[in-house]
From TrEMBL:
<dbReference type="Pfam" id="PF00270">
    <property type="entry name" value="DEAD"/>
</dbReference>
<keyword id="KW-0547">Nucleotide-binding</keyword>
<feature type="domain" description="Helicase ATP-binding">
    <location>
        <begin position="284"/>
        <end position="451"/>
    </location>
</feature>
<feature type="binding site">
    <location>
        <position position="526"/>
    </location>
    <ligand>
        <name>Zn(2+) 2</name>
    </ligand>
</feature>
<dbReference type="Pfam" id="PF00271">
    <property type="entry name" value="Helicase_C"/>
</dbReference>
<feature type="domain" description="Helicase C-terminal">
    <location>
        <begin position="488"/>
        <end position="704"/>
    </location>
</feature>
<feature type="binding site">
    <location>
        <position position="544"/>
    </location>
    <ligand>
        <name>Zn(2+) 2</name>
    </ligand>
</feature>
<keyword id="KW-0347">Helicase</keyword>
<feature type="binding site">
    <location>
        <position position="514"/>
    </location>
    <ligand>
        <name>Zn(2+) 1</name>
    </ligand>
</feature>
<keyword id="KW-0479">Metal-binding</keyword>
<dbReference type="Pfam" id="PF18319">
    <property type="entry name" value="Zn_ribbon_PriA"/>
</dbReference>
<dbReference type="GO" id="GO:0003677">
    <property type="term" value="F:DNA binding"/>
</dbReference>
<dbReference type="GO" id="GO:0006310">
    <property type="term" value="P:DNA recombination"/>
</dbReference>
<feature type="binding site">
    <location>
        <position position="554"/>
    </location>
    <ligand>
        <name>Zn(2+) 1</name>
    </ligand>
</feature>
<dbReference type="GO" id="GO:1990077">
    <property type="term" value="C:primosome complex"/>
</dbReference>
<keyword id="KW-0639">Primosome</keyword>
<keyword id="KW-0235">DNA replication</keyword>
Length: 809
């Protein structure tokens, strides 16, 4: 954190959490937040004065600042980076240079004559009291305005100043209402109609207004008026309305409106089954002793209804509630379920919201409008001041970890910490808990509640392994689908049921290869092959965004035999449409869900039965609750298994169980077909048996033996530089220094990263396995910061970048 000097006149306005403006350099103005007030001047630099205090009410509360400080320390980043992630950009300030006439300037008597362009600027300043640089460019019609402005400043004709602006802008609606004396006087109104007789268009607008706003029965409605677009229906003329306004019949006025609509609750919470009620009671009694409880309930066991009950109780007690979800794909369905019960006391917060909407959620939490928020990981940063409960749904999800940029935090772990600061309870929910959480529950650190049955009559699905190799040998394979999968799909289609087809995306994207020489297209800036996008006929890099058209012939050998390898969701959709021409297909992946309502549209179509078969990536694996899904197909089970990571087994178990859990959630029993080349793989038997505990035990024994979490803490450090040698040298230097730190640890590497180069930067990785004790971690992180500072100070490493990832996922 930086230290600022408080000028005398601002003393009374200083409050922790208020935003302030500070000048850096000659032109740069930054926003800061007051974190602490003290009188220790910094040693290393001269404190800058605070120019202005922006908030009378602090924007950020002390609990938030404590949370930020913890996050910066634990995840080894700067608190400014946490602030940046925490504040919606609408609350950050932007500064812009502007000019105005120097009040001392006397044009007539000035000793310095102005040239033509300078005159032009001053003329413009007569009409407008201030101009931005952009305005000046427009006035002169040229880009290089700095010399001119500089000259004007030297001639003491203008002043340059910084205008700080909030980026948030409230939504303003233009409304129309009847002039108030008309609204209160029947005779005057009748007279008006007499005058308007024959002017059909004006008459019709007036009649429509009176139909929507009964001014005599409910005069208060006239005060609020009508939105212009509501008043003017198709065929109405805008100019007639203008005439009515001009003649003083209507008046137009502006109001600030909420971007987030008001929603009334539609239903009360469902009655819980005895098993669910038991779970609620058990959670509550364990909360008396423990801050965190793990709710381990199989897919379809009705965890959401349990959440609803707990949320209601906490809200009634006057505390706030936060429900975290791993991705927006998931929010669509659950948000509408929750909204039915909670209406608009519930706020929703995620990245598909505009900045302005996010500021309104933020302010809604501040003002108390939202006592309950559902959101993705960034909602941890909202200005809660009295959380009573934080629920982390699908707590095992790896997307809870922020990968880039810093702070690289894990939202589940951060939620537990935030809960601790608020003295709130944290409930972790999952059908397939992360090994970390399950371990903590077994150790007695967390409470533990289990649900072994699906809600109602629903049963867990039946599994089938479909052997890709065997079908190939028997010539039964059609465009990569086994006969068994085709049969199951056909049966479901015949019964008018729905089908989900899942393809794991991670690390396996389709690419283009030359059949003759084996050439594949690679990114020019990264060491990865380009991904083939059928839709746009493009090759794209998923790391840096680079793209090019698919070549018509091989750039290496000239052959025209180019073919696509690797099955993406797009190809699967296409194959299925060939196999089942009568079925209606849908696809849910990154490509089809780019815009704000992408998820919603696809899920709505699926929910209302307009889609028979939905093909998708990870997005369709969790949380979805559709009653008519009876068949789930896992297109390529082996892809889920082959991942070079100590969590591969855990992840595979979770993914297969989760996606299978979408099938048969009502009365019809579901069926899951896993296509694989290795049906004898042990993990399939374990998933099918649903034996989480046994699986956990075996995997844990290995993790213990090879020093992996939760038995150690991991920190990954990536060293990056545009020059290979420099990157390598820096990584080795760091490694040597780290080896000296006197704590219990293992330092591995440095090795070239799996992807050796990204955006023209070479990457090396070191992995540190630390003893779990808090003291060890603190000592190591403190020394690490010092080491990096020393290395960075060496001229050869000045432009090296180090990325620290604590608890990498
Ligand atoms: N008490 C209840 N009354 C009526 N319906 C219920 C009740 N509890 C659960 N259900 C219904 O059972 C279905 C499954 O519940 P829910 O989606 O909450 O399961 P879940 O435990 O979250 O599953 P998953 O882990 O697979 O997401 C839903 O359709 C839900 O509406
Ligand atoms: Zn690239």
């Amino acid at each position: 954190m930086f230290t600022y000097k408080i000028p005398r006149n601002l003393y009374s306005e200083i409050q922790i959490g208020a935003r302030v403006i500070v000048q850096f350099g000659r032109k740069k103005i930054l926003t800061g937040i007051i974190g602490k007030v003290h009188n220790k001047p910094p040693q290393a630099y001269e404190a800058k004065p605070i120019l202005e205090v922006l908030d009378h009410q602090p924007s950020v509360n002390p609990l938030q600042i404590r949370f930020w400080a913890w996050m910066a320390e634990y995840y080894c980043c700067h608190i400014g980076e946490v602030m940046h992630a925490a504040l919606p950009s609408g609350l950050r300030l932007s500064s812009e240079s502007r000019i105005q006439v120097n009040p001392n300037f006397d044009k007539e008597n000035s000793p310095y004559p102005l040239d033509e362009r300078e005159e032009k600027i001053l003329d413009a300043l007569e009409n407008q009291s201030e101009l931005s640089y952009d305005d000046c460019e427009k006035v002169l019609g040229i880009k290089t305005i700095h010399p001119i402005l500089k000259s004007l400043v030297t001639k003491e004709a203008i002043l340059i100043f910084e205008k700080v602006q909030e980026k948030y802008s409230p939504k303003i609606e233009t409304r129309i209402r009847l002039r108030s004396d008309l609204a209160h006087n029947k005779e005057a109104l009748e007279e008006l109609f007499a005058q308007l007789s024959g002017k059909v268009k004006q008459e019709s607008i007036l009649l429509k207004y009176l139909r929507d706003v009964p001014v005599f029965q409910k005069p208060e409605l006239n005060e609020k008026g009508l939105d212009k677009s509501t008043l003017l229906e198709e065929g109405d003329s805008e100019s007639s309305l203008k005439t009515l306004i001009k003649n003083g019949v209507f008046e137009s006025f502006k109001v600030v409106v909420n971007r987030l609509e008001e929603i009334q609750p539609e239903r009360t919470a469902s009655e819980l089954s005895p098993i669910q009620q038991e779970a609620v009671d058990s959670i509550k009694s364990q909360f008396e002793e423990k801050q965190t409880v793990l709710l381990h309930g199989i897919t379809g066991s009705g965890k959401t209804e349990i959440y609803i009950r707990l949320i209601q109780e906490v809200l009634e007690s006057g505390s706030q509630v936060l429900l975290l979800l791993p991705e927006i794909a998931l929010t669509t369905q659950i948000v509408s379920r929750l909204q039915e019960v909670f209406g608009s006391q519930m706020g929703v917060y995620h990245s598909k919201y505009s900045d302005n909407e996010r500021v309104e959620v933020w302010n809604g939490v501040l003002s108390g409008r939202f006592s309950f928020v559902v959101g993705v990981r960034s909602s941890l940063f909202l200005p809660f001041d009295s959380l009573g409960l934080i629920i982390v749904d699908e707590e095992h999800e790896s997307s809870y970890k922020q990968f880039d940029p810093a702070p690289r935090f894990h939202a589940r772990d951060a939620a537990i910490m935030l809960g601790y600061f608020h003295q709130a309870k944290t409930l972790l929910g999952s059908a397939t808990p992360s090994f970390e959480s399950y371990f903590n529950a077994q150790q007695g650190k967390y409470g533990h509640v289990e649900l072994h049955q699906r809600f109602g009559d629903a049963q867990l699905p039946e599994f089938y392994l479909a052997d890709l190799g065997a079908d190939r040998r028997k010539n039964l394979l059609k465009v990569d689908s086994t006969r068994l999968l085709r049969e199951k799909i056909q049966e479901a289609l015949d019964k008018n049921e729905q089908i989900l087809i899942y393809q794991n995306r991670r690390g396996y994207s389709p690419y283009v290869q030359c059949e003759d020489c084996g050439w594949t297209a690679e990114c020019v800036q990264c060491d990865v092959s380009l991904t083939y996008h059928q839709f746009s006929e493009e090759l794209r890099c998923h790391y840096c965004g680079y793209k090019e058209k698919v070549p018509t012939s091989c750039p290496a050998c000239g052959s025209t035999q180019l073919s696509t390898k690797g099955m993406g969701t797009e190809r699967i959709e296409e194959s299925l449409s060939l196999l089942f021409p009568e079925a209606r297909l849908g696809r849910m992946d990154l490509d089809t869900t780019r815009n704000k309502y992408g998820y919603q549209r696809i899920l709505d179509e699926f929910g209302s039965g307009q889609i028979d078969i939905l093909v998708g990536t990870q997005m369709i694996t969790k949380g979805l609750d559709f009653g008519r899904v009876t068949v789930v197909g896992i297109w390529d089970g082996d892809r889920i298994l082959n991942f070079p990571d100590f969590r591969a087994g855990e992840r595979a178990f979770q993914q297969i169980t989760q996606v299978a859990g979408r099938a048969g959630r009502r009365s019809v029993k579901g069926q899951v077909v896993i296509q694989t080349r290795n049906p004898e793989q042990d993990i399939y038997a374990k998933v099918i048996a649903g034996d989480y505990k046994n699986f956990f035990r075996v995997e844990m024994a290995e993790r213990k033996q090879f020093y992996y979490p939760p038995f150690v803490k991991l920190i990954k450090i990536t060293t990056r530089h545009a020059d290979f040698k420099t990157a390598e040298k820096a990584a080795i230097a760091l490694h040597r220094e780290m080896a000296q730190i006197a704590v219990k640890k293992i330092v591995l590497g440095p090795e070239r990263a799996l992807i050796g180069r990204i955006k023209n930067q070479y990457q090396f990785e070191s992995l540190i396995k630390l003893d779990r004790s808090g003291a060890t971690q603190q000592e190591f992180k403190k020394r690490l910061a010092e080491i990096l500072e020393e290395l960075q100070a060496r001229s050869e490493f000045r432009s090296v970048r180090w990325i620290i990832d604590v608890d990498p996922s």
